[in-house]
Amino acid sequence: MTTDRRRQTQVDIYERVTNQIIAAIEAGAGDYRMPWHHDGSAITTPVNIASSRTYRGVNILSLWAAAHAAGYPTGIWGTYHQWQALGAQVRKGEHGHLVVFWKTHDRDKTDDQADDANRDEPARSIFARGYSVFNCAQVDGYTPPESPVLPEAKRINRAERFCAALGIDICHGGSQAYYRPATDQVQIPRFACFRDAVAYYAVLLHECGHASGASHRLNRDLSGRFGSAAYAMEECTVELLSAMICADLGLSVEPRPDHARYIASWIDVMHSDKLAIFTAASKAQEIADWMHAQQDTQNEARGAG
């Protein structure tokens, strides 16, 4: 296949991937969840034992600080009764840590009819309710469940070769996936922790997408703060990039629901820019071109050897 024809084929694939993700978002992509098994080993990502959901907002900071101060090795939390329901017992003398849940309440129409004075009050009220939770290190009778292990035999050679050719330092371990600009390293959970092999490569490509922005590579501005429009654009860009390369490598015929859910979780930050996802797609294609160029460089080096 000629270079021009290959290039056009890639463009067609990338347009299809982008359009399918947009369609999934418009249909309601659902809530995003990490594509690896979370065992609560990271105190920075506190998890509720009963619901298996991560805590949100200020509760994350509160429980992280509590775990750090007390030296708890994991981030698994629950109320006294939640632990009791599991057959575990909070040890005598242990002190709980406060978490807050916010609830909204719409004023009933009958309230308006009963008292004209209520009409000057907001139609929706917000209530905060506090709970005390205990870390699993504070209870007896609990053993964390073993997560399924993805066999090494499930690795996909063509994806392994593609990622290796990028020349990016990849470190495995922990329960977080991220790119650290200061050391120019990608950190990702071990292969065995992932729900399936394609999920592993999708996340690895996402983080390598961030790494492509380093000054000695594509030199993108990676200084956007968490929650900002610039940060959201970068996240959407590299997640689209991940979906595009997965399609290139034949890892998934259609974009995985993970891709649409993750992008949907950031698209609201850019709600003022209706063309945001198309801008992200253009940037993603630039990264994809760079990644494919690294493959050509590796092939030339092998040929010269």
TrEMBL record:
Which Pfam families does this entry report, sorted A to Z?
Answer: ArdcN, MPTase-PolyVal
Sorted alphabetically, the keyword list is: Plasmid
Which part of the chain is the Polyvalent protein metallopeptidase domain? 158-283
Q: Does the keyword Zinc apply?
A: no
* Domain N-terminal residue range list: 12-134
Going by the entry's taxonomy, the superkingdom of the source organism is recorded as Bacteria
This protein's name: Zincin-like metallopeptidase domain-containing protein
- Please give the organism: Ensifer adhaerens (Sinorhizobium morelense)
